[in-house]
Write a sequence for this structure.
């Protein structure tokens, strides 16, 4: 059977540019229900417009509804508006209105204090404006998203220092459905922010549980903690490329024991050797055949913790796993940074550490 092609969508930046152009056309001529805009890909997009209206002799507004295609995107169906005001100074000014976040931390491509409208969307807006702006005229553009503050709660904006709403994003104008490449890239700004705050050490954690425990156990500042999802290897490599020198990999054994086996994309579909790793290192720590069999037949890593605890082999086993995970991580980044590994249970108990991380234990 032929595989169904998923529908592509357009970025918030493309919709902001389209709404801006539609509002300007409305001001200069009459309302429109769609506009064509240029894109960084060198092709043009036709974007539907929900509504346009003239507010005064020099001001108009247009609304568009974000369509992310079949991508899992929290901004899908979000309304984006652009209010334009014609000026006589020949300049194009772009500002954020209601629901557009403000940048409060260094490390992002937008300066602190400005609206979180990234450089590529800004250029798309400017290019769209220049297609219809009369010679000698300028325009003030205010981009808004009425639901932006609520939608932003479902994103990492607050952690990145973007407060009060969503970001206007996009590098191509296109949203590729279910793109793992796009998702991985969306995680990287956490590294930029952490390094811009001059944190000597950053913590890579798989998700919310790791972040919560890092704050609880080691009092790590929120912006020094980087969530990697299943892309621990990719984020480790990016952190080193961007100049991180002290990195702690921290989290639950369900993800981190895979690193000891060289599995750096920790999604279960990419490889799952959790029980085999734990069983092998339990054996190296002195486990008998019955315990090894019990570990191999376990359903969860939490279950293996109970077995190892009963045999008094919990720390020796997980220390060995942490050591190997650390060695594998150092190999992956070619020893260009100091890496240590700390494995913790769901309740915050430190199960195992590599040798360098032991000095960090409370």
């Amino acid at each position: 059977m032929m595989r169904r092609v998923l529908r592509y969508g357009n970025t918030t930046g493309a919709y902001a540019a389209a709404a801006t152009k539609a509002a300007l056309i409305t001001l200069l001529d009459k309302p429109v229900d769609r506009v064509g805009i240029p894109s960084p890909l060198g092709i043009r997009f036709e974007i539907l417009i929900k509504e346009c209206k003239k507010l005064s002799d020099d001001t108009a507004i247009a609304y568009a509804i974000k369509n992310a295609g079949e991508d899992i995107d929290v901004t899908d169906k979000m309304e984006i508006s652009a209010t334009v005001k014609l000026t006589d100074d020949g300049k194009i000014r772009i500002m954020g209105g209601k629901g557009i976040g403000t940048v409060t931390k260094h490390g992002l491509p937008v300066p602190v204090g400005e609206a979180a409208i990234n450089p590529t969307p800004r250029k798309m807006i400017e290019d769209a404006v220049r297609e219809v702006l009369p010679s000698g005229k300028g325009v003030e553009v205010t981009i808004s998203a009425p639901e932006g503050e609520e939608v932003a709660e479902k994103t990492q904006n607050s952690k990145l220092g973007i407060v009060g709403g969503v970001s206007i994003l996009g590098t191509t104008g296109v949203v590729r459905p279910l793109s793992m490449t796009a998702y991985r890239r969306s995680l990287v700004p956490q590294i930029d922010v952490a390094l811009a705050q001059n944190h000597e050490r950053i913590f890579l954690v798989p998700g919310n549980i790791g972040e919560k425990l890092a704050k609880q156990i080691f009092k790590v500042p929120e912006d020094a903690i980087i969530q990697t999802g299943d892309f621990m290897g990719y984020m480790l490599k990016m952190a080193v490329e961007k100049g991180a020198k002290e990195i702690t990999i921290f989290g639950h054994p369900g993800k981190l024991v895979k690193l000891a086996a060289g599995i750096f994309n920790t999604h279960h579909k990419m490889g799952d050797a959790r029980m085999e790793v734990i069983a092998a290192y339990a054996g190296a720590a002195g486990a008998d055949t019955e315990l090894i069999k019990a570990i191999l037949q376990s359903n969860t890593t939490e279950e293996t913790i109970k077995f190892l605890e009963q045999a008094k082999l919990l720390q020796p086993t997980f220390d060995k796993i942490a050591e190997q995970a650390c060695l594998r991580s150092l190999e992956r980044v070619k020893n260009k940074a100091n890496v240590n590994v700390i494995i913790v249970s769901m309740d915050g108990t430190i199960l195992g550490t590599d040798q360098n991380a032991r000095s960090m234990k409370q």
Remarks:
- Residues 1-6 have pLDDT under 50 and may be disordered.
- The two ends are 57 Å apart (CA to CA).
- The CA atoms of residues 278 and 295 lie 7 Å apart.
